[in-house]
Amino acid sequence: MAYWLFKSEPDSWSWEQQKAAGKDGTEWTGVRNYQARNNMRAMKIGERGFFYHSNEGKEIVGIVEVAKLAHVDSTADNPTWECVDLRAVADMPKSVTLAEAKANEKLAKMALTSNSRLSVQPVTDDEWAEVCRMGGFKG
DNA sequence: GCCAACGTTGGC
DNA sequence: GCCAACGTTGGC
């Protein structure tokens, strides 16, 4: 099982909206970057990821799960752009900020801190465990 | 609001 | 296929 991280500006798509999308989840649209798209293509049903608020908040606020494999992004004018469907799983009991992640040397290599531009990122098992520990998420 | 970092585009 | 120019992202 691989782990992931999804970034979104709360102004365009917030964690509240993600939760409101319910159990069936909704498309993670708008990705126009090959690396991010390739990450989504590699995802499997049930794999989990962090939901990160960029710009405003700059913190990991929740856990999501892949509800549907990569398919053409319905908002794209070019079928090269694909996306998965995501559903909200749980709130992060205590949100983990970018500053906290940067201050933790176990997370020094995390894409979030080293390649902040990438909007859909892989997360290693160790990083997943560490962020969950910091956020008080058990599961 | 500024600007650095990065990805993409397009001329050659 | 190189690389300069440009646009976008996102932290500060």
Automatic annotation (TrEMBL):
SUPFAM superfamilies: PUA domain-like. Signal peptide: none annotated. InterPro entries: 5hmC_binding, EVE_domain, PUA-like_sf, THYN1-like_EVE. Residues 2-134 form the EVE domain. This is EVE domain-containing protein. It comes from Chenggangzhangella methanolivorans.
